[in-house]
Each structure stands twice: as structure tokens, then as C-alpha cells.
Design a protein that fits this description.
Chain lengths: 221, 301
Amino acid sequence: MFDFLQGYDLLGAFWVTVQLTVYSAIGSLIWGTLLAAMRVSPVPLMRGFGTAYVNIVRNIPLTVIIVFTSLGLFQTLGVSLGADRFTTINFRLAVLGLTAYTSAFVCEAVRSGINTVPLGQVEAARAIGLSFPQVLRVIVLPQAFRSVVGPLANVLIALTKNTTVAAAIGVAEAALLMREMIENEAQLILISAIFAFGFICLTLPTGLFLGWVAKKVAVKR
Amino acid sequence: MKKDRPTVLYDVPGPRARRRNLLWTLLFLVALAAVVWWVVVSLADKNQLEWAKWAPFFTDARVWETYILPALKNTVIAAALAMVIALPLGALLGIFRLSDHRWLRGAAGTVVEFFRAIPVLILMLFANAAYSEFTDISPDTRPMYAVVTGLVLYNASVLAEVVRAGILSLPTGQTDAAKAIGMRKGQTMAYVLLPQAVTAMLPALVSQLVVIVKDTALGGAMLGFSELLASVRPMSANYGANTIACFTVVAVIFVLLNFALTTFASWLEGRLRRGKKSTGAVVGAEAVEDLATPGEHLDKP
């Protein structure tokens, strides 16, 4: 029944999906937090930049961004991100696109977390003379992140599913392999079931685990 | 209150803080200028800034008539169709999830969790192949069918959660009152809860429309559906390799369209929250993203 699987690197494709997810998650967590810090900072120019970035990037389809990294950045402008093999270039471009897109959502999640920190905490921090970066780093963000694990988990799951868009620029991840297999094998239902199962294995445990973590670390108020 | 919130994070700037802020502004400006400079230089290097590459969008109506408007029409049709079909399906699934019958609740829950856990692209690829194998829809219209089917399967599950949240957001007094005047369960749902829930969740529905519009671009890249993103290639081939200009125009159209929808959603939300006629229950525009992590509700009604 599963003979047709021979000759296809199923695990390899899902491994690429996982790699895309992990690298983009790390990148967008950093860039998204920076964006959130900008959006609440005392410097108007930074606030403006953060707001503009989030509002523009959130409203452009991820597919447009990813295809742009390949057609626009690489093929037109020659940006290759320090790689010389096609597969590596496309992989890095996909991570860049996914990070740029997901950061906007991370930023919004973190910002909503900042809004859950009670006023008194911030006032007390200011009263003992902490500066804005200190208020953010020592008082606000640690509490904000604890309340934001749940929303961030949703962003991470959305990111896992979004990595399939990288197939549009030929990154050899799960969706691209699925399209190839559908074209070559007459086992549509079985192939689709296998890939659906693969993604459920990636997203459901993440959701359950992080949902549990979110309840554990949430600040009880 | 919410608007002033960020200023709580720092004091009203005194002379030193103002100097420091100015310094930060300057530093940030320099960094920003460096990035802009790099972009402009590399664009100019590859001749992407020539007026000839941008002019067609402003002077030549044919670009719009031949490429952009038909593509935009496809995008909008696919998104609208997906919404119109997914909404009743989602409402049905959402109501089933609140059913008193355990098996119905469980079945609907499984369907919802399943389709929410897998990427839309997988659903679209499956629908495309299924249509080509089991039906005789012509290859020209098949991508549209596949895109809409994929979007419906995914969004019906998302909307099921929205409907459920909408119904749960209503005050319990509504159900009690309906019971008190002798309504049966079906009647309570059809005449009391659902109409109010639909009003309460309008903002969330409109903002889900943004997600749907964005996802139609997947069909352009992977299935050959001729929507906005897919119009970039033929356009840049016909107007002198103006890839950057084409992408800019397409991105601007998407941003304007989605920004209009988002603004409409928050206007609706404000109106509903202020409204005196309703119970004031509302499922906000931002709620969709936070409506339960996949798997969270497997064990609960």
C-alpha cells in the first residue's frame, strides 16, 4: 500500500519545514520584540516607524512577500544573502520573508502583553528612578512575555503552517513534495492524508504544550 | 485611557530626556537613511528606477485594463465566494460544537481542529488535484474552484470558532428568557442567540476577510490562478522587466484593500460597543487570532 513512498524523502521535506519554522521563529521573536519596543518608545520617529511597518506588512499577503524575495530581491537586485547554491539561497530568502512577515504579528502580540501589565508596576518602576529601557527590560517585558505565551503560540502555529508558502519559490519543504507526489502518483487521497497527518503532528503538540505552558506561567491577577 | 497608555511607560521628558530622545531620533534617522540609501542605490544600479519602468502605471490605461483590474476582480470574487460559502458552514459547525449531544459536539470539534491544524496550501493542492481527477471542470476555471474550496474548508473551521465565541459572548439572560417563554433549543438558537451572535461577530468576520484576501495569493503562486500576484510576471515581461514597479503596485493595492477592510472592521466594532440596541456583546476584530490554540478545546464542549 505504501510502496509509492519509495524514492521520496518525506522526512527530509518535513525536516526542512521544521528548520524554516525554527529559524523564522527565532528571527521574528527578536525583530518583533524590537518593533514592539519601538512602538511604545518615547521617540516619535521610532513609534511612527513601528506602526507603519506593522500596518503595511500585516496587510500584504505572505505569498507576495516570499515571491518578492526571490523575483525582486534575488533575481532583480542580486541579493543572495551570502549563499551560492540555489537551494541555500532560496531557503535563506524564505526565512527572511517569513521573519519579516511574522515579526508584525509577534509585535502586536507583545504589545498587547505590555498592555496587560498593571499601571502600578510601571509607576513604581518610574518612582524608583528606572529609565525607559530599564522599565521595559526589568519590569514590563518579563511580565508581558508571561501573559503572551498563548498568543505567541498561535503565531508560532500560524508560522508553521505558513512555511508551506516557501514552496512558491522552490524550497524543498513538505508542500512542494506533496505537489510533486500528487503529479507523479495516483494516490491522491493517501498522499494528502499523509501530509495532513504530518502537519497535525507538528501543530497539535505545539498547541497543546504551549497552551499548558501558558497556563503555568501566566501571572495570576 | 487606552490611547494614553504608552505614555505611562515614561515620564514627561525633562531637558535631559529631551536631549536623549533627540539623540535617539538622530541615530534612528541615520540608520533609516542608510537603509533607504542602500535600497535606492541598488535599485538604480539595476535600472529599476527609470521612469520608463514606472510610467505605464500612470500613463497607460491598458496595463490596468489588461492585467491589474481583471486580476483584482478574480481576487475579490474568490475572496467573496469563499466568505459567502464558509459562513453558513462555519455557523453550522459552531452551533454543532455547542450541541447537547456529545457525538455531534465531538464530530464537529474534530472537523474544526483538523482543518485548522493543516495549512491552506495543502487543502488547495488537494482540492486542485481532486477536481482534476474526479470532476470534469475545465482546466481554465479549476484553479478558482480549488482556491475557493481550500479557503472554504479552512475558514469554515475558523468561523466556527468565531460563531461559537459570538454565541458564548451573549449574556446568559438571553437563553434564560427564551426558556422562560417556552422556546425549544432550536428556537432559542434560531430566533434569539444566532441573530445577536451574528451582529456581535461582524467585526471579526470583516477582519477574517482580510486573511481570506491575503490567502488568495497562494493560488496565484502555486495553482496558476490568475489573481493579482500572478499578474506580476506577464506585466513585467511586457513592460521592460519592471519587476520592482509591478510588485510595488500589487503590494499597494493589497495594502489599500486590506486597510479599508480593517478600518471598516474597527469602525463596526466601535459602533457595536457604543450601540444601545444590543446587549453590547461583541467579538472584536483582533479576536480571531487569539481564539484558542489548535487542540485546546478538544476536551471541552
